[in-house]
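User: Hi! I'm working on a homework problem where we have to compare a predicted structure to a textbook description. Could you give me the structure for the chain below?
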Amino acid sequence: MSSAPAVSPLRSPAVAADPVREARIDLAAAFRWAARLGFHEGTCNHFSLAVPGGADRYLINPHGLHFSEIRASDLLVVDGAGNLVEGNYPIEPTAFFIHSRIHRARPAAACVMHTHMPYAAALAVIEDGRLEPCSQNALRFYGQIGYDDDTGYNGLALDDAEGDRMVAALGDNGVLFLQNHGVIVVAPTVARAFDDLYYLERAAQLQVLAMQTGRPLKRVPHEIAAKTQAQIAAQVDAYARIHFAALRRILDREDPSYAE
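Assistant: Happy to help. Predicted structure tokens:
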């Protein structure tokens, strides 16, 4: 007697058949988990995702909704000029100027996440703040972080020039520390972007706690740090998919409203 083919627990075939719907659900899940982990701040931070198959279109959270209440159907579709294509809410002004410029400059970085999460932001508000190569989680980002020290904080992101300044500081990196502000993470998928966001905050948290002891940080030498970063990079996408699938399963059990 033949058995039915196994179905991966990491993806629902019914949902995966519609890539735009799947994109909405993934992004909504990221918002819900960001709220659970304390990565949010009021209703001011924002995540965006290029619409699959849609030229110059991206999903972004509406202004005024808390991360913990965002549903897949609440997400806006906005074009590169800031025009609302789909949705019933306004877009937050700084969200447009940050995300639109990054999406335009880095089209392969389909997902852009901007937060003021506390431990990473703490490193952005000290003189010469850096994520130091002093923990395994930090080594994941070794040589992969941009810092806007040269231009520094320039007020709210309310024009294209400020968005372009951030793009220049980000460069080809996956992470940008914004002086006196917060962080930006970019990646090809929601799963990878959220995984990077999660481990960035964990690395920053450990460093801040270690700094509070008053003892010097034990930095990993360059050769080992670079080797470890390459080892992590070789498997990080697979690990990110598994991590994010687990997070979605938890939401499915505890609060499936995110997918509505």
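For your comparison, note the following. The radius of gyration is 19 Å. Residues 13-259 form a domain with the L-fuculose-1-phosphate Aldolase fold (CATH 3.40.225.10). Good luck with the assignment!
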